[in-house]
Amino acid sequence: MLIQDEALVLRRTPFQESSLVIHFLTKNNGLLSVMARGIRKSGRKGGDRRGALAGFHTVQLESRSRSLEAMGTLTNVEITTPRRNIPTSAAALAAAQVFLEVAYRFSVAGEFRPVFMQTIESCLDLLDAEASPLELLALCLGVLIRDIGYGWRTDECAGCRGKEELIFFSIKRGQVVCKPCGTPYIERLVSISDNILKNMQRLAWPPPFGVLCVAEQALLYRIAVSSLVKAGGKMLMTDQPFRTVIGHDIFTQEGYTPTEIRLS
Ligand SMILES: [Zn+2]
């Protein structure tokens, strides 16, 4: 069986002495695992393939397998959209890894979901064009959360269905909560500014850069990561490395979140 598809490399797992199992996000085949034989050997041919598989590029892959169920062997891979800037910035690199982990965590083999792949690609394009990594994650993770089917409810209160004074967000419910309903449970809720609420409601594309201050970006990022952790039932491994690169103090600003709850 021959598969030709556009793809992003999500993970690489060493296999035996010289091979790698590559986990791709593909446009037409969802999550696709392919064996890249001899890729870790030296030599020019291996070198070209290694280059295509090492970064955050969109590639065109070709894989052959004996049957639909058997893991294919990578027979060709070429870069179609290079993204060479991302690894030159530690913050962009850490942010790209968050996007790829989300893509890996919420993709399924064989699933046709071109919009999801397009959004991930667009996020990587923006990182490659030197968009602010924290701002980009803050603005785009909500879009991905919506795309994978765990979208936030931001139109009415989770308690009374009212539409006024929506000043809290419940990670557990994935929904906003109004001031009267939320005040008794303040320690379990996240306080959100009007500006954050507006951005959670809008989830515009392309992302509206320049509308959130850094503290708001950090809080929205934490809300998004906590929502992903809840949806996936597992920590995001790339979250802490990203926070370390950006600086942990941004994520724990006193006075900004009156309730310093365990967001993640
Ligand atoms: Zn209410």
What topology emerges from the helices and strands here?
Elements: E1 2-15, E2 19-26, E3 30-36, H1 44-54, E4 58-64, E5 72-81, H2 90-105, H3 114-128, H4 133-147, E6 166-170, E7 175-178, H5 179-182, E8 190-191, H6 194-202, H7 214-232, H8 239-246
Parallel strand pairs: 3-5
Antiparallel strand pairs: 1-2, 1-4, 2-3, 4-5, 6-7, 6-8
Helix pairs in contact: 2-3, 2-4, 2-8, 3-4, 4-7
Bound molecules: zinc ion (ZN).
Write up what this structure looks like.
- With about 260 residues, the chain is of the alpha+beta class.
- The chain folds into 2 domains: about 1-80, OB fold (Dihydrolipoamide Acetyltransferase, E2P); about 90-250, de novo design (two linked rop proteins) (Up-down Bundle).
- It is built from 8 helices and 8 strands; from the N terminus they run βββαββαααββαβααα.
- It is elongated and about 65 Å long.
- The model is unreliable at about 255-260 (pLDDT under 50).
- Bound molecules: zinc ion (ZN).
- Zinc ion binds near residues 160, 178 and 180.
